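To whoever is on call:

I kicked off a structure prediction for a single chain this morning and the downstream step that reads the tokens threw a length-mismatch warning. I double-checked the sequence; it's 666 residues and nothing unusual in it as far as I can see. Pasting both halves so you can look.
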Amino acid sequence: MKRFVASASLAALVCGCLAAGAQAAAPTQVEGVETVAALFGAREAVHGATLSPNGMKIAMVQSIGTGGTAVAVAEYDKDPKLRTLVISSSAAEKIRHCSWPSDSELVCSVSVADKDLNSYTRLIALYLDGRPMKVVTAAESSRALGFTWYGGDVIDWTGAKPGEVLMLRQYVPEREIGTHLASSLEGLGVESVDVRSLRRTTVEKPVPDAMDYITDGRGSVRIRGLNPTTSGGYDTNVINYFYRTKDARSWDLLSKVTFNASGSTTGFQPVAVDPTLDAAYGFDRKDGFMALYREKLDGSKARELVFSQPGIEVDDLVRLGRGQRVVGVSYAGDYRKVEYFDSELASLRKALGKALPGGPSVDFIDSSEDESKLVTFVGSDVDPGRYYLYDKGSRHLEEVLPLRPGLAGRKLAEMKPVQFPAADGTMIPGYLTLPPGSDGKNLPAIVMPHGGPSSRDEWGFDWLVQFFAARGFAVLQPNFRGSAGFGEAWFEKNGFQSWRTAVGDVDDAGRWLLSSGVAAKGKLAIVGWSYGGYAALQSGVLDPGLYKAIVAIAPVTDLSALRQDHVTRTDYRLVDQQIGSGPHVTQGSPAQNAAAIQVPVLMFHGEWDLNVNVRQSQMMERRLRDAGKQVELVTFPGLAHSLDDSAARTKVLQQSDSFLRQAMGL
């Protein structure tokens, strides 16, 4: 196997960086925080890569400026230089992902947000021959009784002719007064659309409660998910999945999935259909942990266990190519692993991992229609990652683009799995990252709880962690009880209702850093985003003074207010169930207990945050000021929950570093 690098023109056109494979000069020992913050705060240069059916063209969504996005294409059968097809310079209008209906056009999803916290999506078609782009999402009638918030997604190819896709469509009923032409169709359906002419045909009539359709990769819809709503229009915590046998039109019940308040689910949740086996792949619990099952769709509903891993949640299906062929399954213990059902891919992945420096993780992202060419993503904890194009026939491996060219040649910090004891003796898993070259002792240290709460941290590159490690901090990321990935019992009630356990585990992470000698006395802080920000603030209530400073980004601060923020949303009942009722609602709200916090607090929040309203941070700031505490809130107009803007992220990093150093006396 021979490794090739991309041409200088391909890499330089995107980011003005060094030619792929070249090594940048090592950073000097004396670097200002401004420089380091800008390096790590920069957004990824590219967001995903997808291959045309013939394998000769690759498209990617790029970062443009501090907050914009663009779609660029390299045509290897013509000119490998990247050609930009469309640019969105606004952070409020982002291109999310693209796919190839044929070798000559793309369909891309665009999300749009506004200051009133409205958000919607649209599909657009881009043509490589230079024709003007078109909006693929169906236009609303002037008689529409509502707004089309969801612009649909491509879910399959019809196979009838190039450029024809199956896509989801949100149907909105129309006003009937004064016309006999009004449509009463409502809900989510499926239609066939020719992206060249925009001719559209209904394939599955919409159903008001429909929320999912699953095809077989060959243009046939085989599974439909219905989420019943209440009389008030709120979603329930149940999805009923129905299937149809080959060549049938009627639907039969396949499974019922229940979303529990803890964040766990019960019931068989289908995610893919194998047309050859005439079966659905999906996840269900086995001995309290998620496992992969397969159920026949021939009417027998015969079920078999495909893969499980004792004590670990099996949580992701690996699919490849135009037909989204199921090729493996993925799960995360200390490290994420993939078990390939396809022996050729398993061997190739192993060979590539050995051939590439550092023994990185190798994932197959996309392929040509005949799977002779593969897009792979390669990365690790000390490598932000890069995309490669591999040709099976020639065994040619070519680097396409790195995700973070500004970090090329820079020594990054290794992320090590660790365990530490909670107060009740339970061993809590996590990841410890030490500054490069450090002996791991007597360091300024940060505990960084993840968001969610029913999420988890995994091994791999993390720009926030790596920044603080580069600035000399040790960083511990605890997967506290309430995290996903560790079985049903680990969820407890969830990170809000069982906040004392979850935040207690987070605080025990800090105590372990001190007792083990990693953290220097008086040099311990906590930094968190979203639920992690909530945990950071609540740690100051549960254990005042344990941490010398608190940084909270987009935090939840008041559980009652969080519930109220969802009253006008369809997910209100689910949020209400998650928060629950009882003394924990007040006791577990940092804003209701601000007087207990004894250390300085710094918060950041996007003003267009749809996940956690900026009012949560504004309330916390007022309560802390009223209690005579030291607090600062920095808000970002026009930005959402992830602060997907290089300038904003750089400011977060730079200001947090200065704040922590001052609080710790560094």
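Update from on-call: the warning came from a stale cache, not from the record. Cleared it. Sanity check on the structure: The longest strand covers residues 519-529.
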